[in-house]
Design a protein that fits this description.
The chain is of the alpha+beta class. 18% of the residues lie in helices and 62% in strands. It is built from one helix and six strands; from the N terminus they run H-E-E-E-E-E-E. Strands 1, 2, 3, 4, 5 and 6 form a six-stranded antiparallel beta sheet that branches. The N and C termini lie far apart (54 Å).
């Protein structure tokens, strides 16, 4: 009995450690976007870097990557009705880049996403 308890504790501890290690910097596991709502994550990024991102959601969402140039919003990525996506965007000038998900549904939608900045 004691041996089984020890094995169970070790397995649980390993699961917790691996679970923590599996969530990369910039990860947002288990977020919920309310009905007709949106989620936005903006990052200030310098030239020569790349924004790398991915997401999965429980229902299709409208997704975009955008930045502002004066009064205009520029959309390097703009997609409707997607439930998962992986992508990257190489930055050519320093500014705030925003990932945005809009929920067109009458019910909340769950989303998990990661967004990180890498040197190129």
């Amino acid at each position: 009995m004691k041996k089984m308890l020890t094995i169970t504790v070790v397995l649980l501890a390993a699961g917790l450690i691996l679970g923590c290690a599996a969530a990369p910097e910039g990860a947002a596991p288990g977020k919920t976007i309310k009905a007709k709502g949106f989620l936005e994550d903006c990052k200030e990024i310098s030239p020569g870097r790349e924004l790398v991102f991915s997401f999965t959601s429980s229902r299709p969402l409208d997704f975009n990557l955008h930045y502002h140039e004066g009064d205009q919003a520029v959309y390097p990525v703009d997609m409707k009705g997607v439930a998962s996506y992986e992508g990257s965007y190489r930055v050519d000038s320093e500014r705030n880049y925003c990932l945005m998900w809009a929920n067109p549904h009458q019910q909340p939608v769950k989303i998990n996403y990661t967004a990180g900045i890498v040197e190129k």
